[in-house]
Predict the structure.
Amino acid sequence: MDLIARDSAAIMGWRYEPRIIFSRGIGTKLIDVDGNEYYDVSSGMMCLVLGHAHPELTETIKSQAERIAHQSSWYSNPWAIEFAELVASTLPDNLKMMNYAVTGSEANEIAMRLALGATGGFDICSVVRGLHGGSLAAEAVTSVGGARKRGLGPLTMPAVSNCIIPPFYYRAPVRDQDEWDTISLKLTEEMIEYTTSQEVAAILVEPMMVAGGMIVPSKRWLQGLRDIADHWGALLIFDEAQLAPGRTGKMWGFEHYDVTPDVVTFAKGMSAGFAVCGAVTTLEIAERASGTKGLPWAGTYSSDPLACAVALKQLQIVLRDKLVARAASLGEVLESGLEDMKNRHECIGDVRGKGFYRMLDIVTDPESRDPDPEMAERIRICALAEGLVMIAVKNYIRISPPSIMTKDEVKDVVDRLDKAITRAKESPPTRTDFSSSSSLAADSGASKNA
Ligand SMILES: Cc1ncc(COP(=O)(O)O)c(C=O)c1O
């Protein structure tokens, strides 16, 4: 049996079509079992800031595996301590206390425990179009893609209100950004007052809502959320899973906004692809919440030495090689290439994002701005033929390559994407079957408003 048939027979998982089995990664490239080479335009699952098989990380993995890979999470280890200290050194002064997790979902659940414990509140308020993970409490605060929530009702938590109106300027009912900030904040205040118990424990938000359509708020909007959190005595939690370290051109996405959260959660990019994620908060909040709500929280693999050593090494390299500034300057090259491309292809309604994380919003036409998920899927498939592995969810195509990419490679990626879009425009419509996707894809009937 070939690998694809064996994959279907043995592993319960949704798979993008066409099915490709990758067997190697080197730097910015992926290689499939047939030897074809592709750029990894999504850095795996947005994890690999240093690309694949970075020699220093490979060395760390080997030497750490020889020393100690796993231990009881009842005890600590030098790499967990040093990584927690280094993460804290990149954050505002008061954010010092780390509670480790193994997934982004778990990190957000720890942040929710912290909020419930520290405030004595009840409701966790999250943003419409926010994504915070798939474990059941994280799913409850997620509002991207109705399909993934179907039938879970009683299993997800009740203390949740997906009630914050997003600053989605591109599809807002009014075109003026400032006006929409005023309206969406006002509606959010109203929604919190009327849909919650008014014992608000937290406001949970991604500083840029990636899966919801790369929604980039204004400073005023995010600062407005800080004020709303303060008004209710709630914690402000920033979910940085998609953004740190450095992808947006700042170490933490929230640094663009002059707003400091009470808790910040990290995952993906900070993890270097290993199971090390976490929630960082202030000493005072940690003390208030400890001993309640199961805090401090640890599962089987929390703060494992191997994962922490690799994440530590990666963050040291990010700082040493100034990869945050590099992401900012690569982002300028990427942005100008994509903006240029937008002028040639009407199906690109908008290019959004910051730094080296951008997204194309694919539309039926620039006037109506109606989402076109089928076209986005066709582009993704044509991009494979051009040697680009990309993530397209609904009508949103993500571009988040490793920060080690060269400027010439960025230009090459843009050229290939341009060719892929030309191909997609000339090729017949692709039937998009998202029925087995656990994630965010358009579901029938809802795609118009995706
Ligand atoms: C913003 C955000 N938070 C949390 C998560 C969940 O992370 P994990 O899949 O590691 O549980 C994701 C995953 O895509 C995410 O995008």
Remarks:
- The pocket of pyridoxal-5'-phosphate is lined by residues 103-105, 108, 131-133, 206, 210-211, 239, 241-242, 267 (CB under 6 Å).
- The longest strand covers residues 95-101.
- Residues 323-344 form the longest helix (22 residues).
- The CA atoms of residues 29 and 39 lie 4 Å apart.
